Amino acid sequence: MTANNRPPTATHARLYAVGTTPTAPTAPLTADPNPGDTHTYTVLGPGAHGTAITVSGGTQLVYTPFGGYFGFDAVPIRATDIGGQAVNGFAVVLIRCAGDFTGDNRVDGRDITGFVDCVLNGNGCLVSDLDGDTLSAYVDLADDHAAFVAKLLSDPDLTCP
Q1: At a CB cut-off of 8 Å and minimum separation 6, what does 149 contact?
Q2: Domain ranges in the chain?
């Protein structure tokens, strides 16, 4: 801790889950203007599709999905530095169906491949399907001609088999 402790400025975590299996313990990333500050984490609320807890003295997160869902979930977290200063953020979880070891959910044709009109959102994309649902997709840029594979991660019409 420095003499003039300043609060951390951002925190987030990326976790990956399959089926109902808990994630590996994962330390969130925290931006802090004070070199050498360490952080503990608090889970501020539940996710929509699973629960998160802190482990290892509050330095790591573990998320357990409820099951029957594939897509993203987000859990609000707080990072607190050794001086008591804190910042809120999110742990974002990608939940895959059990048995989908490659992470593409391709077994049931949920990939959208080729040129797709979409609204870019960070490294993601929002695509509408035939019945008007908004789908979250991860965009994997394949070449300089803007061909890509949008791997479908969330659709309200679909659940894990």
Answers
A1: 111, 112, 113, 114, 139, 140, 142
A2: 10-96, 106-154
Q: Report pTM.
A: 0.67
How high is the pLDDT of residue 32?
93
Cβ within 8 Å of residue 143, ≥6 positions away: none
148 CB burial (10 A radius; 0-12, 13-18, 19+): buried
- Fill in the DSSP letter of residue 107: G
Per-residue confidence (pLDDT) for residue 104, from 0 to 100: 47
Q: One-letter amino acid identity for 26? A: T
Residue with tokens 């089926």: 19
79 Cβ partners below 8 Å, 6+ apart? 8, 11, 28, 30, 39, 40, 41, 86, 87, 88, 89
Which of 93, 151, 157, 95 is CA-nearest to residue 127? 151
Residue 50 half-sphere exposure toward CB, CA atoms < 13 A: 32
Residue ranges in the chain whose pLDDT is less than 50: 1-2, 103-123, 138-153
What residues does 120 pair with on adjacent strands?
125
Query: CA–CA separation, 89 vs 75, rounded Å?
Result: 9
Q: Does 2.60.40.10 match the CATH number of domain 10-96?
A: yes
Tokens coding 152: 């479908």
